Amino acid sequence: SREGGKWVKFNSFIEVLSDIKTESACKTAARSEGKNKIIWDKLRSDDDTERCFVQAPEIHCDEAPYTRDNHLGNADNFGINNERPNASRIEIDLPYFPSGDVKRCVFRTRYNISTTDYDGWNTFADSNNNADVISNDPTVNVFADGSGLELALNTAQTGRTFQDRSHIYQILPRTAEMAGKTIYNLNVRGKRGNIVQTFPATEYDFIPNRLTVKENDLVHVQWTGSNTHNNKNNGDDGEGR
Question: What pLDDT is stored for residue 118 in this prediction?
Fold first, then answer.
């Protein structure tokens, strides 16, 4: 590079198949693998050793379904069988590791807000505390007749991350009976109570709402919740299922 450094290429991977020692054996494994892409290469360009490894899958990026502001209900999206509408969601495939080893994974979810109160593509850190960009409780001319309308706007809550959650989970190897079969996760979500008491959650729901399976498919039912609690929340006075 111009500063005298050297560019280093990295291969993104989810695991190294350390029991495969030759390129021919790696190619054989790649031909028999239907889920991931297995290659024989260096993990980084300045390394002298080539290895057989599983490349990381392509990044899955979808546009969020459209809803009105602060909407608690169905969105303009498609479910697993192209049925609409459904509650806002994203349906993903869990990673598959050909080695069959137990893997610890991290799932991070962030809830961001997009705003058009200012030009987000051309606003940077040097605009902090610049009232010309955005200010608290600005007065706008709505009717073009000079009559101002004050907006209830707090710049500390504009265009920021509202939620950031990380969860660690394990993926266990499949048993021999599960080999080659599709496994669907059937989850539940919700909280005991009516729509007002459970806000901003929902009372009860299955995810996915409708599930079509074939004869040899498997369903992994993940039921979460509690039989009793004493949180003194509304909804049957403390009992939740």
Answer: 75
